Amino acid sequence: MEHFIDVVLPIPLEKLFTYKISEQESDFLKEGMRVAVPFGKSKIYTALVYKIHQTAPEVYEPKEIHQILDETPIVTQTQFKHWQWIANYYMCTLGEVVRSALPSAFLLESETLILPNKMDAIDESELKDEEFLILEALRYQSAIKINEIVGIIDRKNVLPIVNKLVAKKAIQLKEEIYEQYKPKLVRYVKLGEQYSSEEALETLLNSLTRAPKQSQVVLSLFSIQAKSKKPIKVTDLETESGGSKAVIKSLIEKGILNEYHIQTDRVQYDNASTRQKEIHLNDSQLEALKTIQHTFEENKVCLLYGVTSSGKTEVYIKLLEEALSNGKQALYLLPEIALTSQLINRLQAYFGDKVSVYHSKYSIHERVEVWNNVLKQKEKAQIVIGARSALFLPFSNLGIVVVDEEHESSFKQFDPAPRYHARDAAIVLANFQDSNCVLGSATPSIESYKNANNGKYGLAEMKHRFGNVLMPDIELVDIKEATRKKRMKGHFSERLLEEISEVLNEGEQIILFQNRRGFAPIIECTTCGHSSQCPNCDVSLTYHQFKNQLRCHYCGYHMALQLACEACGSNTLDKKGFGTEQVEQELEQLFPKARVGRMDLDTTRGKYAYEKIITSFEQHEMDILVGTQMVTKGLDFRNVSLVGIMNADTLLNFPDYRAHERSFQLLTQVAGRAGRTKKRGKVLVQTYNPYHQILQQVSNTDFEKMYSEQLYEREQYKYPPELRIIKVTLKDKDYNKLNEASQWFANSLRNVLNDTVLGPEFPVVSRIRRLYLKNIILKVQKDKSIVQTKNSIKRIEKSFNAISQYKSVKVVYNVDHI
To answer: Of 60, 369, 476, 600, which is least packed with CB atoms within 10 Å of its CB?
Structure first.
């Protein structure tokens, strides 16, 4: 009887692929283990075993697997079930979900090695110069990689030359697999066993009288052992004794010290031992906690709607504690990596070393360690804090999922596939794991709030700030009038400058919010009107003063700032608009004694950059923090009494049906950073239109009014949550071909589906990375089967792909587009 396995390859394949295995391999293999398999002519991929069976494929002859890479499964059955749901719902393949879900160290890479063919004699006179150079290199090396040949012959496309050498039987090709993850081994030392008795030890110290440095190392070893019974690291011994690596090495060579290694996790927390005492909840928090627990008894998701600084984190801590006391794991999702650094400290102060962190700023090795700890249900990974990718971890005993700041658009992945929404995927994960799920926000999304009002979710409310601190006083400043009367200093109104001066004099801190990074979005020539454009995208280049560069925020293209206009040669270049860099520079000129910091994508690129900026601001090493929306979300600064919003209109006037909802959420969230202790905070919102309904609602903190108005508008114009939206984006380098292809696709959708089809239409930025984009929006009624609609779209895509002239056009789906 033959045995086979179906595997998931980490590539966008619609179907599973089948490979042949032996009976012994069949007995050993389990679903969720990794195997290396050949695919195509010479590539080897890491695949996940999905199913073990005895049915041979009918269409193709199955190949044998290359090797088995695991002894136990690294992916659970619940994970496969959840990933399959993501693939089906968000219209992508299971392979794309696997590539996104698994840490890249698990996806072993294969590299083609070139070896000399020693079996056959080669006539060197028949070789061309470049072929001869490759064979010459193989005389001095046993094997060469493809990318090394590029350097040897100084040519990018080397495959034709390699193929000719294979045809001439001069070389052989071999696929080598590299395990990317390497465990971290820490060096420890101990005294040799032969010196365990006091007499032997005394003899040893006497023999080292002529080697004082070696003697000092041995004495230091004793002093460390006397203080602690723990194993002694080589680095600690070096520090304690003042001895060099060479001294310790010579003692190891003599056999006086024995060296050994212990595998350790790369991420260790220092403050794990300092445990905080019991958290005491106030009446409002206790009421919310009871409501959440009652909702969980009804097997419902619960929405915790608590105003900024009402103490939602303490309620989450109680829920996490309850899950842990029942022997369960917990997942705490956050929209931004910036939030994790503050939260980690708070959770570790309470739960000690039971907390692990998982997000993209961690190295691949650190992520593998967290994955393994969660899989083995180790104590150090009982609570996992992470951004949206933490959803994919191998939980097998999940008790609770907390989605904090559930309204955030950062929870939606845009590129690459799967384009999933972490909040919705977390609710499904909790359902698969039979665990509880709580969504929290001070400004819930309209969808979640509607679900809570309909009774689909439970609703727990906290209407007052912790300690009965007053909500901040929000004042709208009319900069249209101030500009007309010439009362603006740069981008600051007199009112904002007056408040900043007052707060600085009182020794308190300020946050200024401007939702644009860089110095200026456009550099324009005032003579001819030309502004520098990105050659790859349909956007103007943003000026970054710190590097004196013009940069594209879509593809990363950059160039030095030109001294004269590229079009007319005039040197009359003017900066239009302003970003965080310009605000920072103006503050340094207006308040030279104030310490100003900046927090945006440019200043937070390093692994610990978020932590450094947040800690620095917490410890009052900065007086004013200028930032983009990173500073708006859930951060807790005790000494901030003033928040300034530089220009609210850039948020409101955005071509998106969610613009007003997002503006309310963002402005309310940033306002919530002010006055979080006893003193009432102040918020100044600079705007050209202070009578705008959203700004009035923000100034009155009137969420209910915003919700009812937005819901009414969405119902009138047929937008979510009234119905579902699927956005189909077509991409191609050829402008005319894209126009034809998108029109064909839109017409087909109209013919097959009875739903509203909008487009095709160019988006605001119609070209990114040299590809033109065109969008088709499909509005699906709630009472229609979304599964049937998706199947119909997929059938249209198959017909579309069969048209030869449209083969280069890429089709991308974004389900529940936001």
So the answer is: 60
Nearest-angstrom CA–CA distance, 343 and 339: 6
Q: Helix or strand or coil: residue 502? A: helix
First to last CA, the chain: 52
Contacts of 533 (CB under 8 A, 6+ apart): 539, 540, 541
- Torsion 253-257-263-265 (CA) sign: negative
Q: What's the angle, vertex CA 547, arms to CA 544 and CA 553, rounded to 5? A: 45
Residue/partner pairs of 700-703 with CB below 8 Å, 24 or more apart:
700/474, 701/307, 701/471, 701/474, 701/668, 703/443, 703/444, 703/664, 703/668
Cα separation, 306 vs 396, in Å, equals: 31
The whole-number average pLDDT for the span 428-448 is 95
In SS3 terms, 414-434 reads as: CCCCCCCEHHHHHHHHHHHCC
Does residue 377 sit in helix, strand or coil?
coil
Residue type, 557: Y
Q: Under a CB-based contact definition with an 8 Å cutoff, are residues 416 and 96 in contact?
A: yes
In sequence order, the 6+-apart residues with CB closer than 8 A to the CB of 3 are: 20, 21, 22, 23, 25, 26, 52, 53, 54
Q: Give the whole-angstrom CA distance, residue 20 versus residue 6.
A: 9
d(CA 410, CA 135): 52
Proportion of the chain above pLDDT 90, given as a percent? 46
Q: Go through the domains of the chain in sequence order and give each one's CATH number.
A: 3-108 (3.40.1440.60), 110-178 (1.10.10), 193-255 (no CATH), 271-466 (3.40.50.300), 473-516+592-712 (3.40.50.300), 520-577 (no CATH), 723-815 (3.30.70.600)
Alpha helices per DSSP H over 272-392: 283-297, 312-325, 337-351, 364-375
pTM for the model stands at: 0.82
> Which of 421, 410, 369 is CA-nearest to residue 393?
369
Give pLDDT, residue 470.
81
Q: Report the pLDDT value the prediction gives residue 351, as an integer from 0 to 100.
A: 86
Q: Report helix, strand or coil for 470.
A: coil
Cα(83)–Cα(50) distance, integer angstroms: 12
- Both tokens of 249, joined, read 């090495």
Instruction: List CB contacts of 800: < 8 A, sequence separation 6 or more.
Output: 741, 744, 745, 748, 806, 809, 811
Q: Is residue 421 predicted with pLDDT exceeding 90?
A: yes
Residue 270, pLDDT score = 53
Q: Distance between CA 514 and CA 609 in Å, rounded?
A: 20
Q: Tell which wins on pLDDT, 118 or 351.
A: 351
